[in-house]
Amino acid sequence: MVNLSSFSPIHFLFYSLVISLSSTIICGGIETDHEALLKIKSLITRDPYGALTSWNDSLRLCDWSHVYCGKRHRRVTIIDLSSQGLEGSLSPHVGNLSFLRTLSLGNNSFQGAIPQEVGRLSRLCRLYLYQNKFNEVIPTNISGCFNIEAIVLSNNELVGSIPKEISSLTKLSFLSLFHNKLTGGIPTILGNVTSLELFSVSDNELVGSIPKEFSSLTKLTFLSLFNNKLTGGIPPYLGNMTSLEVFSLKGNPLGGTCDNRHKTGN
Ligand SMILES: *[C@@H]1O[C@H](CO)[C@@H](O)[C@H](O)[C@H]1NC(C)=O
Ligand SMILES: *[C@@H]1O[C@H](CO)[C@@H](O)[C@H](O)[C@H]1NC(C)=O
Ligand SMILES: *[C@@H]1O[C@H](CO)[C@@H](O)[C@H](O)[C@H]1NC(C)=O
Ligand SMILES: *[C@@H]1O[C@H](CO)[C@@H](O)[C@H](O)[C@H]1NC(C)=O
Ligand SMILES: *[C@@H]1O[C@H](CO)[C@@H](O)[C@H](O)[C@H]1NC(C)=O
Ligand SMILES: *[C@@H]1O[C@H](CO)[C@@H](O)[C@H](O)[C@H]1NC(C)=O
After folding, report:
1. pLDDT per residue over 134-171, tens digit each?
2. What is the pTM for the complete model shown?
3. Could you tell me which CATH class the domain 4-248 is placed in?
4. Ligand 6, CB cutoff 6 Å, lining residues
5. Residue whose CA is at the smallest distance from ligand 1 atom 6
6. Which residue range or ranges hold the Leucine-rich repeat-containing N-terminal plant-type domain (predicted)?
7. Whose CA is nearest to atom 12 of ligand 3?
């Protein structure tokens, strides 16, 4: 039994304040997620398998399909809409899903820009946007995703250069950008991303040479550079990179055929 007589008006005020504050914080968060998902849905123009049918108010947001929430805070942590035949563009509201850890939209037909707002997702670990029709630049603000481990943007139509801002992502281990229309050089500063294990930029229009700074990438196991316009010779230090298992340079002016060690698919 609660002894009501020990509940002074001050206590009562205090507890009502705590309760109303915490409920606005939680509600505010969920409402932002709710709004963001509906905005994302509103820019999807084709949904042949009804992947987003359940994204409506007859169900609670955490019960919507392809959406996963954290157990404790009930905020959206994963969106997995890969291979759903979706067409449309990606709403900048995605940047409001502040608890998002995985965004997986691979193998659909999203086009237009990857919004700069993605850079507001400071908890994001995995960004899978491969095999779509994104056709603008890689957002420089991606450097705001400082927890990111995998950026997979391969098989799109991205233009412009590889943003040097990526160099500040200290947890990044997978950077896959193959088969786009990227131009410019490979930023030497990427030699600072010592967490990198996979770097694939094959099938682009990159020029310049392989930065000697890559010799610092001691965890690199997969380095794929084929079908670009790289020049400047094969850096001698590559032979010293003991972690390297797959290395492909075919189809570059410098390369001839020098697939070392393993054949690569990509
Ligand atoms: C809302 O979602 C439920 C559950 O998936 C579905 O049965 C219903 O048809 C949806 N309503 C609309 C209007 O799409
Ligand atoms: C891509 O998505 C389509 C459905 O739209 C599916 O049939 C196909 O198997 C998927 N491909 C891959 C490689 O996952
Ligand atoms: C969400 O994002 C949009 C566009 O980035 C912004 O205009 C809006 O104010 C944001 N906040 C909320 C709470 O929806
Ligand atoms: C991009 O990042 C800059 C610097 O952090 C910030 O001022 C700007 O608002 C960001 N843009 C978007 C669209 O989030
Ligand atoms: C790259 O890393 C080195 C060693 O940690 C550091 O001294 C340097 O300032 C970094 N460069 C940039 C441009 O961040
Ligand atoms: C490769 O490693 C050996 C032994 O540590 C060293 O003497 C040599 O200078 C290195 N070569 C390059 C190109 O880094």
Report:
1. 999 999 999 999 999 999 999 999 999 999 999 999 99
2. 0.86
3. alpha beta
4. 236-237, 240
5. 54
6. 32-69
7. 32
Q: Which residues have CB under 6 Å of ligand 1?
A: 53-54, 56, 58-59
Give the mean pLDDT of 111-133. Answer: 97
How remote is the CA of residue 138 from the centroid of ligand 4, in Å? 14
Query: What are 62-109's pLDDT values in tens digits?
Result: 999 999 999 888 899 999 999 999 999 999 999 999 999 999 999 999
- Range 45-72 average pLDDT: 95
Q: Where are the domains of the chain?
A: 4-248
* Alpha carbon distance 92, 126 (integer Å): 18
Does any ligand 4 atom lie closer than 6 A to the CB of residue 120?
A: yes
Report pLDDT for 73. Answer: 86
Q: Give the residue, out of 40, 93, 98, 114, with the most ligand 3 atoms within 8 A of its beta carbon, to mutate for a pocket test.
A: 93
